[in-house]
Amino acid sequence: MQERRTSLRDVAQAVGVSVQTVSRVANGEPNVAPEKRELVLAKMRELGYRPNAAARAIRRGSFRTVGVVYHSLHSVGTHRSLEEISERAAESGYATTLMPLAASSGQAANGAFTRLGEMAVDVLIVILPAPFGVDEALHLPEGVPAVILGPPLVEGVATVDFDQAVGARQAVRSLLDLGHQTVHHITGPPGSFSAASRLDAWRDVLTQTGRALPATQPGDWSPRSGYRAMQQLLAEHERPTAVFAANDQMALGAYRAIIEAGLRIPEDVSVLGFDDIDEAEMFAPPLTTVRQDWGLLGRESLRVALEMEGGAPPEQVELATQLVLRASTAPPSAG
């Protein structure tokens, strides 16, 4: 037979005080004399009393839990942001509950929101990599402050995102400033917010500067797709002198295709990526790229969420990117 758990009433009777006094001590509330507080705490330890977290949460109306909805942990950005959110939440006394999406659809997201609502979270952070929310209504849990990591798509909901268009424009302009006549582009997957933003920025800069607009080569963020896309670019009649890959991992695949073709980076082909993953500076040569501070993204999303829990209005936060110049880009060779 399972031993009965020590209750507040047991502690109160053992000390000779009211249940309300023991409750105030257990919840860290004021208005208890220091001597009496020490007696109650000592008796709690002696009897092995442990507060019931669920009951305390119901009484307080707070569960000290952050819910995070995400689609995949494969991307570097999602992994780093989640790591930062969970670590910072723990520092603030919050647990983190993760809810993966079975599919990239509004229906899947709404199902995840419902399950999180049933699990009682105080705030919600949604990592939204694809625009399914544009065509399908997202029904966020009522009364739960929510922050979307992505563009502002849902009215009245806070968002935190990078200004990716500015970063991509800086990347393309830097290659043109080096003297390249145009810049070829390896895109991210269709349906990705990030890929679409970087593609639009690439197209805008070339159009505004009157440069030729080459056909793009599609990728899916993976090194393998970057390798295949670069092979296709090198097979064209006029070999590219500068390539902007929509992320660093595809740039890594492009490196291999260029080297296998007997060409040099940057002497024959300049390569520029996006993200500034940890390995970027270890590429041979080190990769010029656009840095996104994923840790800052996670911290800011949690800050906004917790401030909203305290009554603050929703914010739309746009974080800056930074062009990091390394050895993979240079002026085109005279030959």
List keywords for this structure.
single chain, 335 residues, alpha/beta, 6-stranded parallel sheet, elongated
Kindly state the mean pLDDT as a whole number?
86
Shape: elongated
Count helical runs: 12
Radius of gyration: 27 Å
Supply the helix-strand structural class. alpha/beta
Number of strands: 12
Write a structural description:
- This protein has helices spanning 8-15, 19-26, 34-47, 53-60, 76-91, 106-118, 132-135, 164-177, 193-208, 223-234, 248-260, 294-309, and strands at residues 65-70, 95-100, 123-127, 146-149, 158-162, 184-187, 217-218, 242-245, 270-272, 289-291, 316-319, 322-324.
- The strands form three sheets. It has a six-stranded parallel beta sheet, with helices on both faces. It has a four-stranded parallel beta sheet with strand order 7-6-8-9, with helices on both faces. The chain has a two-stranded antiparallel sheet with strand order 10-12.
- The model has no long low-confidence stretch (mean pLDDT 86).
- By secondary structure, the chain is of the alpha/beta class.
- Helix 11 links the parallel strand 8 (242-245) and strand 9 (270-272).
Task: Tell me the layout of helices and strands.
Blueprint lengths: L7 H8 L3 H8 L7 H14 L5 H8 L4 E6 L5 H16 L3 E6 L5 H13 L4 E5 L4 H4 L10 E4 L8 E5 L1 H14 L6 E4 L5 H16 L8 E2 L4 H12 L7 E4 L2 H13 L9 E3 L16 E3 L2 H16 L6 E4 L2 E3 L11
Parallel strand pairs: 1-2, 1-3, 3-4, 4-5, 5-11, 6-7, 6-8, 8-9
Antiparallel strand pairs: 10-12
Helix pairs in contact: 1-2, 1-3, 5-12, 8-9, 10-11
